[in-house]
Write a structure and sequence with these properties.
The protein has 310 residues and is an alpha+beta fold. 39% of the residues lie in helices and 24% in strands. The chain is built from 9 helices and 14 strands. Belongs to the non-flavoprotein flavin reductase family. Residues 17-160 form the Flavin reductase like domain.
């Protein structure tokens, strides 16, 4: 039997392994000459709780192999979702991977990256040759972890984990509902609360949209009319005149419209209230689920905008 699989078989094997979702780690150590070394690895795994032990593997062709084969200490960093760039940086060879990175120092003066989901300081316990890799087993001497969501890797791409919530009895699965229905119901609930908040400030939703538009850039009435969305069901000119009479806008005829100090204060107060409403509505989601939700909604919005422009 051949020890080397055909190229196509090796590729298929690698693709099959990619079906297994993993986290992403960066392993750091100190070389014999005192240089900091680090590599990206998704081969990290737990081995034992008593004593606490972990393992990971490094390829025989890695430029950092010699350093890890002699290092007495190393640190495993489980990367957070916002550390994808670190994964890419430490996956490369032939560069100063630590340039511009502020690190802490652990046992054996090993560099420790900040902002990770978890970090494990280890003493090298065993090294085992395994095919084209070496398996390195470490005994954990210290560790720390945070609430940062971990970075995920699956099928050659980065991602993030989303919990699979159990079905609620008597409630139809979200997958069976029309997306448009869910979006409308969510919008109705939010708009109703926002309008209640705006009414207390004696500002209508169309007036709020005008204040927001003016705060973002210097506009005249014609430019505001071009930007008018479905919420602006009253003519822009009437809205601008009303807000100017109440001291919220400075709107000289034919000139640029700007917020007054009173307008800025009113907009800031209402915006904070609306942000509180949004946070309450999203309170059942984790921070990375909120990030995903915003990203997916933005994609939907952009697809409609691109279609309209096309």
């Amino acid at each position: 039997m051949s020890k080397t699989a055909p190229v196509d078989s090796a590729r298929m094997f690698r693709n099959a392994l990619g079906s297994f979702a993993t986290g992403v780690t960066v392993i750091t150590a100190r070389a014999a000459d005192g240089a900091d070394v680090g590599v990206t690895a998704n081969s990290f795994n737990s081995v034992s709780l008593d004593p606490p032990m972990i393992l990971w593997s490094i390829g025989k062709n890695s430029s950092s192999l010699a350093a890890f084969m002699q290092a007495e200490n190393f640190v495993v960093h489980i990367l957070a979702t916002d550390q994808e760039a670190l994964s890419g940086r430490f996956a490369k060879s032939g560069t100063d991977k630590f340039a511009g990175i502020e690190v802490e120092r652990g046992q054996g003066d090993v560099p420790m990256l900040k902002g990770c989901a978890a970090r494990f300081q280890c003493r090298t316990a065993f090294r085992h040759e395994a095919g084209d890799h070496y398996i390195i087993v470490g005994e954990v001497s210290d560790f720390d972890h945070d609430d940062h969501a971990p970075l995920a890797f699956h099928g050659g791409r980065y991602g993030m984990f989303v919990r699979n919530d159990p079905a609620v009895p008597g409630q139809a699965p979200a997958e069976e509902a029309l997306l448009s229905e869910l979006l409308v119901r969510a919008e109705d609930g939010l708009i109703r609360q926002i309008e209640d908040e705006l009414s207390e400030a004696e500002i209508s939703l169309p007036e709020f949209e005008v204040l927001r538009s003016v705060s973002d850039s210097v506009l005249n009435v014609e430019e505001l009319e071009e930007m008018a969305g479905p919420g602006l069901d009253t003519t822009i000119l009437v809205l601008v005149e009303d807000l100017a009479e109440r001291g919220y806008l400075d709107a000289p005829k034919g000139g640029p419209i700007t917020l007054t100090e009173e307008g800025e204060a009113a907009l800031q107060g209402v915006t904070l209230d609306i942000e509180s409403i949004e946070q309450a509505a999203l309170s059942t989601l984790s921070p990375h689920e909120v990030a995903l939700f915003r990203r997916f909604l933005a994609k939907i919005v952009h697809s409609f905008e691109d279609e309209a422009e096309g």
